[in-house]
Amino acid sequence: MAKSALDKDLKKVGSLEEATQALSRSIAAPGLAILFLLAIFLFMMGIAPAGPLSLFVIAGGVVAGYMALNIGANDVANNMGPAVGSRALPLGAALVIAAICEAAGAILAGGDVVNTISRNIVVPEADFAVRDFVMLMMASFLAAAIWIHLATFLNAPVSTTHSIVGGVLGAGIAAAGFGIVNWGTMGAIAASWVISPVMGGVIAAALLGFIKWRVLFREDRLAAARTWVPVMIGLMAGVFAMYLSLKGLSKIWKPSMGTVWLLGIAAFVIATLATRPLILRRVPQLENRRKHVASLFTIPLIFAAALLSFAHGANDVANAVGPLAAIVSAAETGEAASDRVALPLWVLLIGAMGISLGLALFGPRLIRTVGAKITKMDAPRAYCVALAAAITVLIASALGLPVSSTHIAIGGIFGVGFLREQLANLGLSADGQKAPKPKASEPSSLSKSPEEAIRKQVKREKRRLVRRRHVVTIAAAWVITVPAAGLLAGFFYWLMKFVSDF
């Protein structure tokens, strides 16, 4: 009796310690984020140009840091989520790799020139006041950051680009009416809501189908792996060489399409030839089991996740600090809009540090959602999602289609999940063989017929393979991102206008 009471007391103490640690972590993360924003405020106080717009420049720096924190918390999960969900990487290692690669991409290869958002989304008149333009940028920036923050809290991965677009759209309409909007650009962005996830899902499912039928469904998986795994690694190397040369290294190098294709082909050949001996040495150590063969995709998956993070940092840092660069440029030049707005190094540093810190402090929850809560991941599935993301961006760039990396990655996850679900519906086991049906002579539970038992089993399997509630939540968040950010931005613009006029 005494021992039982002691055990209960020890359990209570253990539970109290766990609760205290969880509370400490929940307080520490916002505290560190506030310190980061305070440091930016002090830094901006020291470098803000003197003049009537200096307060907007200081506030813009703080909002840029807040935006970068939210991009790190939400957007980066798309690159690292599948790798963590497949257990190719522990969460801590994924956070470290992503933080380093995101920061490196932003600082080393972040775009040195950004097309002004107002030129693409809204077209202000020549006499549009500089102060109004700065308030438009501030309102759109703040609205996008708050919307991404809310989406992260709801565990919904949304497009940061679309959030910025919605913010600029809403603030622009509030400032000058519907005529200021470039509706052609908006139509292309709206089309990408469908194009991005569908294209990513189809390509990811096709890649996974190829791996299943050429390797995992074979009787001798090891022999198939010796033939095809080096080819798949070579394909990954070729695609990412093209992807980085087009999307991730624009500041360092801008090759022609012919050069990009030659680079991709060369990377494919070199990687295939280089990895074949490694695979041949590794295969004899494995058993002819699906799990053992799937482990061959672990190292390529880690490299793919790291490269995606580098490219994301190089490209999407502009979403975090692009409007800040536009505000600083307007304050320095006195012009409402410019075709070319430079991104100074200190602006890139704010974006890089904010993205990395936001990922470390607030990213784990959404990483778990993306990597494990939509559908079950393993190394081959996660590899297909990463490779599909790069291939889709390349195809979209060649066709001139505006696509969202977030939508592509999530579409890829749903694509592999629905393929697995369809195979289960067809009665195929993990070996690609028809699953045995229960014999008619066997009694079924609750006196149901064998056919009813099979239908119920398939239905349960469908719910297990792809969680439908995440489909609805994420799709709804995508659809309302632009209008929600737009309404918030319109409200913030009117509020700023009222205060400034008062």
Question: Can you describe this structure?
Answer:
- The chain has one domain (35-435, 466-501).
- The protein has 17 helices and 2 strands.
- It has helices at 2-47, 54-74, 77-85, 91-109, 117-120, 130-153, 160-176, 183-216, 221-248, 257-282, 290-294, 298-333, 345-373, 379-399, 405-425, 450-465, 468-501, and strands spanning 113-114, 341-342.
- The protein has a two-stranded antiparallel ribbon with strand order 1-2.
- The longest helix is centred in the N-terminal third of the chain and has 46 residues, at 2-47.
- It is elongated and about 75 Å long.
- The termini are far apart.
- Mean pLDDT is 79; it is low at 438-447.
Q: Can you summarize this structure?
A:
By secondary structure, the chain is mainly α.
Beta-strand percentage range:
under 5%
- Overall shape: it is elongated
Task: Return the domain count.
Answer: 1
The chain-level mean pLDDT equals 79
Which structural class best describes the helix and strand composition? mainly alpha
Distance between the termini: 74 Å
DSSP helical segment count: 17
Question: Features of this protein?
Answer:
502 residues, mainly alpha, two-stranded antiparallel ribbon, elongated
Layout of strands and helices, then pairs:
Blueprint lengths: L1 H46 L6 H21 L2 H9 L5 H19 L3 E2 L2 H4 L9 H24 L6 H17 L6 H34 L4 H28 L8 H26 L7 H5 L3 H36 L7 E2 L2 H29 L5 H21 L5 H21 L24 H16 L2 H34 L1
Antiparallel strand pairs: 1-2
Helix pairs in contact: 1-2, 1-13, 2-6, 2-12, 2-13, 3-4, 3-13, 3-14, 4-12, 4-13, 6-7, 6-12, 6-17, 7-17, 8-9, 8-14, 8-15, 9-10, 9-12, 9-14, 12-13, 12-14, 14-15, 15-16
